[in-house]
Write a structure and sequence with these properties.
Elements: E1 2-3, E2 6-14, E3 17-22, E4 26-31, E5 38-46, E6 50-51, E7 54-59, E8 68-76, H1 83-107
Antiparallel strand pairs: 1-6, 2-5, 2-8, 3-4, 3-7
Length: 108
């Protein structure tokens, strides 16, 4: 997983025991189970930006259905959308506005 230098926010949704260990960072999630589905937010602090190996251990103890949803996108604390995201969003709004304008002109 890629981590930015400093704090990185992540979340894991799970319904039973879970541990997440990141090389160079340490144990960042240690949630024993069993329990009902829960969202566990956590912060991984990296001293330098780069790719880090991780080990995720999940234990389904009480029968299905199992739930494990991991968000490892590596967004920094207080992050803003990337410039590419902004440009795609603006182009999408512009295209939608052009379609509405064209449709109104055709009706009139």
């Amino acid at each position: 997983m890629f981590l930015h230098a400093g704090d990185n926010l992540f979340s894991v949704s799970h319904d039973d025991g879970l541990q997440l260990n990141i090389d160079g960072v340490g144990l960042v999630v240690d949630q024993p189970g069993p329990h009902s589905p829960t969202l566990t937010p956590f912060t991984a602090h990296a001293t330098t930006a780069g790719n880090y190996n991780f080990q995720l251990s999940y234990g389904e103890c009480c029968g299905g259905p199992a739930e494990l949803i991991v968000d490892l996108r590596g967004s920094p604390v207080g992050g803003a959308p990337e410039p590419v995201t902004w440009s795609l969003m603006i182009m999408g709004f512009g295209a939608a506005g052009a379609m509405l304008r064209r449709r109104r002109a055709a009706i009139a």
